[in-house]
Amino acid sequence: MSDKPHQNLAIIGHVDHGKSTLVGRLLFETGSVPEHIIEQHREEAAEKGKSGFEFAYVMDNLAEERERGVTIDIAHQRFDTDKYYFTIVDTPGHRDFVKNMITGASQADHAVLVVAADDGVAPQTREHVFLARTLGIETLIIAVNKMDVVDYSEDTYEQVKTEVQELLKQVRFDSDDARFIPISAFEGDNIAEHSDNMDWFDGPTVLESLNNLPEPSPPTDAPLRLPIQDVYTISGIGTVPVGRVETGTLNVGDNVSFQPSDVAGEVKTIEMHHEEVPKAGPGDNVGFNVRGIGKDDIRRGDVCGPADDPPSVAETFQAQIVVMQHPSVITAGYTPVIHAHTAQVACTFESIDQKLDPSSGEVAEENPDFIQAGDAAVVTLRPQKPLSIEPSSEIAELGSFAIRDMGQTIAAGKVLSVDE
Ligand code: GDP
Q1: Hey, how many other C-beta atoms are within 10 angstroms of the C-beta on 335?
Q2: For residues 268 and 289, is the Cβ–Cβ distance under 8 A?
Q3: What confidence tier does 49 reach under pLDDT thresholds 50, 70, 90?
Q4: Which InterPro entries has this protein been placed in (predicted)?
Q5: Is 18 labelled as part of a ligand binding site?
Q6: Burial class (CB in 10 A: 0-12, 13-18, 19+), 52
Q7: Lateral strand order in the sheet of 139-145
Q8: pLDDT tens digits, 196-220
């Protein structure tokens, strides 16, 4: 681990606009790709009579290495600049990227939005910018990619920039903070060094912009919250729930409670990366064993917290949502599935309390009869099975969720308050 402040970075944008290529390029330029992978690739490329360097290939190899449990740091896609240590929070192109982004599995402070110069703003560009705004991404760096494909044309860059600024205005992203950079992830233009191909651009490169990001917000003093991903039985140890510590600290000897299963016990052992540790903190993936708890007492979707400050279980909760896509109208009684942390629970729209003006955030209508795609609203939801969830103002990590139906993410939301 590095002593530098840690930043979580999301790389967002439409499919094929170059997210993976940019990640590969960032790892490469910062010396984070292992030499043997580069060598191996050069040899294979030479055999096929090719020169050049395919980042897709590097990314595939990183994924393979991760599966074999090697070079964890690289597989997790980490790199550093002079000032910060960066973790890319999700693999671009991952099927559940949007869901993970919403449910907090990928909490990012900042994002790089990749927009291909030859394509401009595309459907997922909109969707991701919309989510980034809803989820409180602080700073957006907009990389106008594939500049090599458009002959490094300043006019094309300006057109795409105007399109994106228009989009930011529509979703009310404070565009003063947005930084635009014309790049070629493939050729390496304006990534680490200023490109001679675009002497009309004198702004910072991608790595300079990352280095200039605001300091990450300090960790909160929120209590332990550890959503359970899986529950294993391991011989010689017993029941081992596993999950990622979102907030607080888990210590051997702590009395912990699992909600909504409503069981409690004392932590006997904690294991991280196959080693026993005395404690674990935010971001740590752990397996742990709790005295007296059996495999059937707890399940995926439970949240572990201190026995004297347990995670809340919602009878109903009020939330602010944004409807991204839905074929018809949403009315009270609608019952889609809520994905929050590791839980998936059907929830009924008990009432639609307010429709908000998407351009100002102000109340546009009290108790509307329905909402539809593009609307923002305050709604009251009733879980059909016990669900542990928290107001996002108290524990941001456990206060955001996705609403899914018919195999699609139809809305994203944040919990305003919980009625237990
Ligand atoms: P993703 O789906 O957003 O992760 O996109 P990829 O990184 O997989 O890139 C999609 C395709 O565009 C691949 O064939 C890349 O080689 C190509 N590509 C990405 N960036 C550039 C670029 O800057 N210039 C050119 N010419 N091709 C690029």
Answers
A1: 13
A2: yes
A3: low
A4: EFTu-like_2, G_TR_CS, GTP-eEF1A_C, P-loop_NTPase, Small_GTP-bd, T_Tr_GTP-bd_dom, TRAFAC_GTPase_members, Transl_B-barrel_sf
A5: yes
A6: exposed
A7: 78-80, 85-88, 6-13, 110-116, 139-145, 179-182
A8: 999 999 999 999 999 999 887 666 6
Please indicate whether residue 399, judged by its CB atom, sits closer than 6 Å to ligand 1: no
Tell which atom from ligand 1 comes closest to the C-alpha of 13: 3
The DSSP result for 202-268, as a single string, is -S--HHHHHHTSPPPPPPP-PPPBEEEEEEEEETTTEEEEEEE--BS-EETT-EEEEETTTEEEEEE
Residue pair 224/247 in contact (Cβ under 8 Å)? The answer is yes
Pick the residue whose CA is nearest to atom 24 on ligand 1: 146
| Ligand 1 neighbour 182 (Cβ under 6 A) | no
Indicate whether this model's pTM tops 0.90: no
Which residue minimizes the CA distance to atom 14 of ligand 1? 16
Q: 263 has which bridge partners?
A: 258
59: helix, strand or coil: helix
In this model, does residue 249 exceed pLDDT 80? Answer: yes
Asked if 90 contacts 97 with a C-beta cutoff of 8 angstroms, the reply is yes
Out of 8-22, 100-114, 152-166, 358-372, the most confident range is: 152-166
- The yes-or-no verdict on residue 52 having pLDDT over 70 is no
Question: Is 19's C-beta closer than 6 angstroms to any atom of ligand 1?
Answer: yes
The predicted pLDDT at position 285 comes to: 85
Helix axes 154-170, 123-134, angle to 10 degrees: 50
| β-pairing verdict for 316-323 and 85-88 | unpaired
> Between residues 40 and 258, which one has the greater pLDDT?
258
Asked if residue 94 has its Cβ within 6 Å of ligand 1, the reply is no
The torsion angle over the Cα atoms of residues 389, 393, 394 and 398, rounded to 10 degrees, is 30
SS3 300: coil
Least confident of 12-16, 44-48, 138-142, 298-302: 44-48
Q: Tell me whether residue 14 is annotated as binding.
A: yes
pLDDT of residue 69: 45
The answer to whether the beta carbons of residues 29 and 188 sit under 8 Å apart is: yes
So what's the pLDDT on residue 71? Answer: 36
Q: How far is the CA of 20 from the centre of ligand 1 (A)?
A: 7
Residue 155 binned pLDDT confidence (cut-offs 50, 70, 90): very high
Q: What mean pLDDT do residues 315-325 have? A: 89
CB of residue 24 inside a 6 A radius of ligand 1? no
Q: How far away, in angstroms, is 54 Cα from ligand 1 center?
A: 10
